[in-house]
Amino acid sequence: MRVPRPHSTQGALAELVIIVALALGLALAIQAFIVKPYQIPSESMEPTLDVGQRVLVNRFIYRFGDPEIGDIVVFHPPTGAERGNQCGVQRQPGAACSQPTPDQADVNFIKRIVAGPGDRLSIQNGHPVVNGVAAEEDFIRPCSPGGECNLPTPIDIPPDHYFMMGDNRGESDDSRFWGPVPKDWIIGKAFATYWPPKKIGVF
After folding, report:
1. What is the pLDDT of residue 40?
2. pTM score, two decimals?
3. Of 48, 76, 71, 49, whose CA–CA distance to 61 is shortest?
4. Are the beta carbons of 178 and 97 closer than 8 angstroms?
5. I want to staple 168 with a disulfide (CB 3.0 to 4.6 A). Which of 4, 35, 62, 141 is the partner?
6. Is 189 a catalytic residue?
7. Nearest to 102 by CA among 179, 154, 163, 188
8. Could you tell me if 164 and 181 are in contact, meaning their C-beta atoms sit under 8 angstroms apart?
């Protein structure tokens, strides 16, 4: 059965308004619940992701499973991460921050998960050592001497928390400074890049 088309200019305009509203609503729903674009704001994920590069973030994947080591995720850091790298507890000598501040910040960060709930973690030459095993990471930018490249005193990752590090280990403000991130603060997993054109691809 064919639906009659409006014959008046007023009817055609109303139809156009409805179509645009539905399209806009669908786009907003997709961004809110399914896939959201995100622009890389800093050098912390180089050489994997460059400043200005745009990625797509799956917002619902962690409703059906837990994040995994190696996932690149967008998340809310703890309050204080965006201004001065505040840790939620007194850091032990030679150790990363073991607890975040209790509230999440309003900003979004993008980093890589390097350790999960219950893991015992230390840092050697910028590489995470998880449960006594050093990660093999040929994709990172090496950590410069000094700074937080070596944190030999191990910490334990709390339940439902994930330890985040940028791939540019010498130029990344990450969980080493402000602690692991609760799962509830993770927005989603970055799974593809769509800009610039030469970088288009799936992780």
Report:
1. 96
2. 0.84
3. 71
4. yes
5. 141
6. no
7. 179
8. yes
